[in-house]
Amino acid sequence: MMVRAIEVTSATELSSAQIKKIEKVFLSKHKGENVEFVYKIDKELIGGILVVDGDKYYDGTVRSQIDKINTDFKMSEVYVQAATVPKRRKSKPSADSASVKKTPAAAPEQLNAENIKAQTEKELSDIVSRYNKSFDVRHAGSVEFCGDGVIMCNGLSAAEYGEMLQIENGAQAIVLSLSDGNVGAIVLDDEDSVSAHMLVKTTGMIVSVPVGDKLLGRVVNPLGKPVDGLGEFTSDKYRPIEALAPAIKDRDKVNTPMLTGLLAVDSMIPIGKGQRELIIGDRQTGKTSIAVDTILNQKGKGVICIYVAIGQKSSTVSSIVNTLTERGAMEYTVIVSATARDSAPLQYIAPYAGCAIAEEFMYAGKDVLIVYDDLSKHAVAYRAMSLLLKRPPGREAYPGDIFYLHSRLLERAAKLSPELGGGSITALPIVETLAGDISAYIPTNIISITDGQIYLESELFNAGIRPAINVGLSVSRVGGSAQTKAMRKVSGKLRLDLSQYRELAVFAQFGADLDDATARLLEQGKRTTEIIKQDVHSPMSVEQQIILLYVTTKQLLKDIPVARIAEFKDKFIKFFDIDYADVVKELRECGEITMDMGIRIEDAVNEFALYFLKDEAHE
Ligand code: ATP
Ligand code: MG
Q: To 10 degrees, the CA torsion angle through 20, 21, 26, 29?
């Protein structure tokens, strides 16, 4: 018969009465087993006792309570604070786990000198009988294997998925795989100093990040530590990086527009607050630019923006920070940065950390825009970790739960109901495709999770049509209801016109004889294409967009040469904003183009076109 060894360590020698009490408790826990007690004395414990029963630690020592104060202190220093893990996984229905409740560590007021003294003086047997209330019961194990930011531990039989582990050297790890007798975890910081045989303890908590206004204007790593060289900050609020998405009854309909400032997007692929719109395309097609322009366009609109960089080059991140700083957008923006140089575990937690920061603002009733740039690299980081954890590879070598990886993240974007403050998180995930293949594993997954996608194409980008949006393959499934009447009216036919034009343009390439109607359509199409071109970092107000589209769809630009449309557009918008400010104001207030306004816009175009074309004659 197997002998179960139970090790009891105390600071001073235990009396026989105390020993009797301890043995009684543990013998009753292991009825019918062959139990052997080993007693040790360790003065370092100061007071109290430590019982090690298999992989379970019943730690009632004064030493551990002092350590706890120290760790809490250290943890608040590195901005990783813990929150209790919600009970998700039922632990094995053994007598052990049923009778031992995880209790939060002793509250700080319990730990003053008086209490320590009282505790050392107290009857140890008393503590044993109350062990399930005051003992810090942890599960411990040791590192069997470590490398590439991943550790495998034995013991830890009650560790939970996503739980934070504390390693002997002070490093933290997150449990990601649970198998028989083995727990796989990823090390978050200081991975080089972890070595085999180190002691690992469960904490009953999950990783949290600092949240709140103090983060605005800052660049932080996924643990909430500043990396912008602007000094440390202290935050008194923390949120766990994993959280449940708002329930259906807590949500409201998407009914307010989230304006990107890009004419092509706001008119044809409108995004609403609380929506999740994917930006997808090959490398170097302007994906990041669309997201950054959207952030720039939120200036003065009361929207908080969060840009999460995952696996990007440090230089890309710093150029984004520069752009945002130059244009005064950093004051309402937080950047969470896990660059390609950071470890896979940090890249993996980055979007969840960003989302936790966003949730704090959302639950405070604010509107938040969050950009995940990009989720393909996030999936790759997760795949690397999963393979190292020896989880079975599936399609494209991604692990089986790759869908859950992104769905649980994107479900957290929401428009909250008025009872919950009416805040929102609008998510703009970015996915990079290879050779335009949107049917690859990760793109199809994310397309099916989001409420639409903006599809960017290299051919269009290289042909100078920028933003390079493929109108045919881009959709927004919910944002349309948030558009104003005027915008809906002018953008109604735009999409159809454009796709008709692109079809005709293919035929026209063959040099076939074209009838008048077709030629007119082509001319009109060319002008429309020119109108929706837009340079980076030059967002347009929604009124400017409506006026331009009105002018275009009413075919008022047919006298302007195609090559000069871009120039005309810029100058006309400036002219209109100043000379027809009352029309702009009226449009903003009523959200509709009345007959009278229509006539005035036409007058304005004709007046300006005359001046514009004469100008050319002079040149
Ligand atoms: P990557 O795959 O490297 O992440 P990306 O798809 O995010 O690239 P961006 O970095 O946004 O692409 O843009 C690539 C280049 O194209 C940049 O130099 C940017 O300035 C330029 N660009 C993007 N959009 C436009 C635009 N509308 N007009 C002109 N240039 C643009
Ligand atoms: Mg990019």
A: 120
Six-digit token pair at 347? 């890249």
Shared domain for 518 and 611, answered yes or no, is yes
Domain boundary residue among 428, 462, 483? 483
Question: Does residue 477 carry a catalytic annotation?
Answer: yes
Q: How far is the CA of 341 from the centre of ligand 1 (A)?
A: 22
Total domains present in the chain: 4
pLDDT in tens, 500-540: 888 888 777 776 677 888 888 888 899 999 999 999 999 99
CA-to-CA distance for 183 and 176, rounded, in angstroms?
8
Q: Ligand nearest 466 Cα, by number?
A: 1
Ligand 1 centre distance from Cα of residue 290 (Å): 8
Of 480, 363, 374, the closest CA to residue 412 belongs to: 363
- Return the CATH number at 163: 2.40.30.20
Q: Which residue's CA is the closest to the ligand 1 atom numbered 20?
A: 536
Does 122 score more than 60 pLDDT?
no
Tens-digit pLDDT profile for residues 78-104: 333 333 344 444 444 333 433 333 444
Could you tell me if the CB of 445 is within 6 A of ligand 1?
A: no
Pocket test of ligand 1: the residue of 279, 282, 288 to mutate, having most ligand atoms within 8 Å of its CB, is 288
Q: Write out the H or E segment, with its range, that includes residue 596.
A: helix 595-618
Domain region containing 153: 135-206
Is residue 287 lining ligand 1, measured as CB closer than 6 Å? yes
Answer whether 377 contacts ligand 1 (Cβ < 6 A).
no
Please work out whether the CB of residue 260 comes within 6 Å of at least one atom of ligand 1.
no
* Ligand that lies nearest to the alpha carbon of residue 292, given by its number in the listed order: 1
Section 162-166 average pLDDT? 91
Q: Does residue 432 line the site of ligand 1, with CB under 6 A?
A: yes
Query: Among the three residues 483, 515, 546, which one is the final residue of a domain in this structure?
Result: 483
- Cα–Cα distance list, 182 to 154, 157, 195, 207 (Å): 5, 8, 17, 21
b/e for 58-80, b at 16 or more Cβ within 10 A? bbbbbbbbeebeebeeebeeebb
349-374 pLDDT per residue, tens: 999 999 999 999 999 999 999 999 99
Ligand 2 centroid distance, CA of 284 (Å) = 7
Its sign, for the CA torsion 212, 87, 245, 308, is positive
The DSSP call for residue 479 is G
Please provide residue 88's backbone torsions phi and psi, each rounded to the nearest 5 degrees.
Answer: -105, -50
Select which of 4, 477, 488, 495 is catalytic: 477
248 with 363, same domain: the answer is yes
3-state secondary structure of 227: coil
Find the 158 Cα to ligand 1 centroid distance in Å: 48
- Whether the predicted pLDDT of 591 surpasses 90: no
Furthest-apart CA pair in the chain: how many Å?
Answer: 110
- Locate the ligand 1 atom nearest the alpha carbon of residue 312 and give its number: 4
The owner of tokens 């092509």 is: 264
Q: Is the CB of 261 under 6 A from ligand 1?
A: no
Is there an atom of ligand 1 within 6 Å of 539 CB? no
| pTM score of the predicted model | 0.82
Same structural domain for residues 194 and 221? no
Q: How far is the CA of 401 from the centre of ligand 1 (A)?
A: 32
409 and 537 share one domain: no
Contacts of 336 (CB under 8 A, 6+ apart): 220, 221, 222, 306, 307, 308, 309, 350, 353, 354, 357
